[in-house]
């Protein structure tokens, strides 16, 4: 695997890896982290590849900075870590901090789509061919982490994205831990499974999370180790394992493995909008249901999720006729 590591000394740190500076003393320059470079085999667009990991513009675990860098935090098998990635002349340059730094750098090629094969996709529709041409840097990420994609996917069940993003922000900031290293602004690491399990019922309520979704997350974190072991499985098998947990169905499992496993064929079924978008784009049928969507995507078997991503990126969305999903706020009940 191409790449190089350079370990640097780290100063004494406090909670979350932040340097403790007494009042009135100038803050020292951030300590350099461990580094690695990786050259992708083809075009790479960081925004397209890593964008699905971002849960809203205020996601405390994800930042995109004006210099083109992408920052993300993760709770890895070796502990919390912060990763910064930037493209330099076609090469991905990464730096990482915290106990999970080395794991994040080892995972860097997979996270940037090394195991993905864009050339396996053969567009059979003009819209998809055009989308491929316009988005040559699209590769499917594979994070190697299940829980960090599963929990926000559960939060997004049956609510508006704004509500789900708000709940994610509030819970991460209150129960997560500060990101190690010199992260931009204030970033946080997703809580450990035990921390999720100890969140009081009223805190879920304050975040706008109903009992059904909260209970699903609590059941999932109790078997977190078993769910993370699904990384050794094919995506379809991993989905089946996730769906053993009550409250996790095909929609949630697909949304999870698309990110954790880089699953090119895992279609999101049960979505309120996706069937109509796919139907409108490929057949002019904005009223398509899941069955019709799967039929239209059948020629792309093995790459159906990529086909759906390209359709969404094409902007070929039917004009809205139905009212938006009503926004709820259980915190005010």
UniProtKB/TrEMBL annotation:
Single Gene Ontology BP term?
A: DNA alkylation repair
Could you confirm whether the keyword Hydrolase appears in this record? yes
Domain of life from the UniProt record = Bacteria
Q: Which GO terms describe its molecular function?
A: alkylated DNA binding; DNA-3-methyladenine glycosylase activity; DNA-7-methylguanine glycosylase activity; endonuclease activity
Region annotated Disordered sits at 1-44
Tell me which UniProt keywords the record has, alphabetically. DNA damage, DNA repair, Endonuclease, Hydrolase, Nuclease
Keyword match Aminoacyl-tRNA synthetase = no
GO cellular component assignments: cytoplasm; protein-DNA complex
Q: What is this protein called?
A: 3-methyladenine DNA glycosylase
């Amino acid at each position: 695997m191409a790449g190089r590591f350079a370990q640097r000394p780290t100063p004494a740190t406090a909670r979350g890896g932040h340097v403790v500076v007494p009042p009135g003393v100038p803050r020292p320059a951030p300590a350099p982290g461990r580094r690695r470079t990786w050259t992708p085999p083809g075009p790479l667009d960081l925004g397209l590849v890593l964008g699905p990991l971002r849960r809203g513009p205020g996601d405390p675990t994800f930042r995109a900075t004006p210099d083109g860098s992408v920052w993300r935090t993760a709770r890895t098998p070796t502990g919390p870590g912060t990763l910064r990635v930037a493209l330099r002349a076609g090469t991905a340059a990464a730096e990482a901090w915290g106990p999970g730094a080395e794991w994040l750098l080892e995972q860097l090629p997979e996270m940037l789509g090394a195991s993905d094969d864009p050339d396996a996709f053969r567009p059979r529709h003009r819209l998809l061919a055009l989308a491929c041409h316009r988005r040559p840097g699209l590769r499917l990420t594979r994070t190697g982490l299940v829980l960090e994609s599963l929990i926000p996917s559960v939060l997004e069940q049956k609510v508006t994205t704004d509500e789900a993003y708000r709940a994610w922000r509030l819970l991460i900031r209150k129960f997560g831990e500060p990101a190690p290293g010199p992260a931009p602004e204030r970033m946080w690491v997703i809580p450990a499974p035990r921390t999720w399990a100890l969140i009081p019922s009223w805190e879920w309520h304050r975040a706008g999370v109903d009992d059904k979704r909260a209970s699903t997350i609590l059941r999932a974190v109790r078997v977190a180790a078993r769910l993370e072991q699904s990384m050794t499985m094919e995506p379809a098998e991993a989905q089946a394992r996730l769906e053993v947990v009550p409250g996790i169905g095909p929609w949630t499992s697909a949304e999870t493995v698309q990110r954790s496993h880089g699953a090119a064929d895992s279609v999101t079924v049960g979505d309120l909008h996706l069937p109509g978008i796919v139907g409108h784009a490929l057949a002019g049928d904005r009223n398509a249901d899941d069955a019709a969507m799967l039929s239209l995507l059948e020629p792309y078997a093995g790459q159906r999720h990529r086909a759906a991503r390209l359709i969404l990126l094409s902007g070929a969305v039917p004009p809205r006729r139905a009212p938006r999903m009503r926004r709820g706020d259980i915190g005010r009940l």
